[in-house]
Every structure is written in structure tokens, then in C-alpha cells.
């Protein structure tokens, strides 16, 4: 696909790097020569220096006829991105999308209005991140998760700890122990260091492995038991930082829990948050890096701690401190992708990266159109995709074991009507099934061909 990205800021640069790895032809427009040179030095992209919303620059970048145009200009108002997307569509881009910074534009009536004007997707990375945090608070036993069909199938990532019954067990032994339960869940992959392994029967589970699983709703409690995990009922939440993500999180989750407390060091920002947030959200002016302050605010009594300030280092270390205080569930918002593994090794339960979440939304536009949802799972470069199977597509032509499915991809589970089941070699996929697939990046395009 030919993709043009306008804006080489953090989000735009990350999208460029990830989408270029998927064998797409990427052009990036930005008015800052330094940002462009830094990006072109590390990614296979073409950089064009120019002013945002310049039709002349857009034409020279190949916007007319491009498959996808993404407006993510950094340090500008959202109106610039909206105008850029509308111009791109007008001069011939097939699909256009724009980054926003105001949730008002995402109301159903406004989304419909912009859709009619020609913008195919508008996204608000901070809101996406807040929604992901809420979802992970609901699945507190795992480090990452994804639901299909309102939870009929659930994909979850579990960390093997010292106390886990799985430690040093072989996959074959695990399968033998659980066979009496029927096919309610399946081990899909293991992330170990920088490697992602599709396990075989003689593969051992090691300390600190991240194990990717898929389960039917009724199988998840038993699966959690094997990993020595249990869900935490989250009713009181402490948030470090009054960032946009923190604001979006507090605004939404306040309707679901009894108390939310935000600690923010900027007094003016505290006043803004107090005025706009619900009554069960309290805002404390102070430096959350101070463990004495956290103790004074009774951090030990909270069920969950979310660090969402502007510093990755502060967010990670604050979560480590919260764990030492005894908070059962800690989540860190981290911008630097290189910190994701470090945060997990230090004991952070879940790490949220808004660039990865946004990239998943964009990746959907590069596939066949049969992909319903896509998500990058934490701890690995792998992607989880949900497809609706089109009549006559290649995946329906026989049992999965005869399909020649990519080696670095697995069909994990299937939803057929009101039923869900775990996929195995003899499974035959039918038209209109919803299928959950786990795939490494190099296999995604090949997987997509099976569903066309």
C-alpha cells in the first residue's frame, strides 16, 4: 500500500516505522528537517519537508491516489489535522484519518458528520489509552488481554512467576493435566526476552515467561488457577499525574468505581481537573514521586495504581513503589517502546503505550477490510487480529492442518453464531465465522490473504 503520513512527531514516526515493516510504501511530510532526518535514518520511508496543509506539498508526496493518508501533525491544533485530511480526500486519497485532541468530535453525531465530509476515521490517542487502561483493570489477573464477541473468547497474557504451578512444566505435561477439562483453552505463544516462541510439546515454561493464551469464557477461571492468578476487584483507584490520559481515565471510570484520586504537582492543572471531573474524583496537589506523600494519601488502601504523568521513568518507578506499598494492580503509561520490557521486568503489571494502540487502529486500514479489530500485545511484536470470514475465502477450503497457514501465525479460536470454540488442526472454518488469529509481523500480510 502507498501511505502518506503528515507529521513526524512521536505518533507519526512510530506509525511510519511500524507500517514500513509491513512492506508498505511510506512517505512522511513534516516542516521540521531535523525530525525528518531522524526518522529516515532509522526507517525505510521517504521524507518530504513542507508546510502542513499545503496542496502543492501533498501532490509532491503522492497524496492523490494514495491508499491511506494519516494526519498526525505534532504541536498543532486538531483543526490543522482535520483540514489536512479533508484536503487529502478531496485531491484523491482513497482513505483518510486524522488525530484529534477533543472527545467532543468523537460523539456519534459528529463522527457521522465528518464521515459524510470524507474522513474515514478520527482517533484520539489519549482516549484510546484510557479505554485500554479501563479494560485492563477489568482483567486484573493478566498483563494484557483482548475480548472477542463480548468475552465469549478471551485472549490473555500471563507472566510465569516463582509461585506459578506452570514453572518448569512442559507444554505436553500441561496439556495432559488439563485434557480432562475439555478444550476450553489453549497456549498460543511464549514471549521470552526478545524472542516470541510458538511452543512445542517439549517446551518448558520458564520464570518470567509471558504466556499468550486463548480461552472460552468458562475456561478462563481454570486457566488463571494454573498460572496462580486471580482477578482483583477494583473499586478504589489512585492516579499519578493529571495528564490528558488521566483526565479521560478518571472521567470514564468514575462511573464504575466508588473513588478515584489524582495526584498532580501543577496547581493550575489541579484546579482545572477539579472543575471538570465528577464528585467522586478527588485531586491532590503534590509530587507523586514522594513516597511519604503516597503514604500520607493512604496508597495502601487502594486496589489499583495508574501512573500516567509525562515522564516514563517516573511512571515506572512510581509503580514499583506502589507495589512495595502493597497495591495489587499497577499500570504504567510509557511512551518509549524501549522501556516496555524493563517495566515488566521491574514488576509493573501492565504497560500501556498509546503509540502501539494507535498503530493497531491504522494497521486495520492496510489489510483486506475483513479484519474487525487488531491489537499489538505487550511484551512481543506480535499482533492479534479478529476476522469475519467472507464466503469463498481461502481459509474455508478445508481443515486448518491442510491450509498451509503461515508458520508464525495461529488460529486461536472461532465464534460461530452464539457458540465459541478453541481451534485445532481438524477445525474447518466456515463463512461468517469470527476468527481470532495470533501472528508475528512478518506473517500478517500472508494471513490476510487467507481471509480475502
Textual characterization of the structure:
With 452 residues, the protein is of the alpha/beta class. The protein folds into four domains: 2-123, Rossmann fold (3-Layer(aba) Sandwich); 137-226, Alpha-Beta Plaits, CATH 3.30.70.1450; 234-327, Rossmann fold; 359-450, Regulator of K+ conductance, C-terminal domain (Alpha-Beta Plaits), CATH 3.30.70.1450. It is built from 15 helices and 22 strands. A six-stranded parallel β-sheet has the order 3-2-1-4-5-6, sandwiched between helices. α5 links the parallel β5 (96-99) and β6. The mean pLDDT is 90.
Mean pLDDT over the residues: 90
| End-to-end C-alpha gap | 16 Å
Which word captures the global form? globular
Radius of gyration, taken over Cα atoms and rounded to an integer in Å: 23 Å
By DSSP, the count of extended strands is 22
Q: Which sheet architecture does the biggest sheet show?
A: 6 strands, parallel
Helix amount, in percent? Answer: 25-40%
Give the low-confidence spans. Answer: none
Question: What does the oligomeric state look like here?
Answer: single chain
Under CATH at level 1, the class of the largest domain stands as Alpha Beta
Give the structural class: alpha/beta
Number of domains: 4
Give me the CATH fold name of the largest domain.
Rossmann fold
Strand content: 25-35%
Strand order of the largest sheet: 3-2-1-4-5-6
Task: Note the total helix count.
Answer: 15
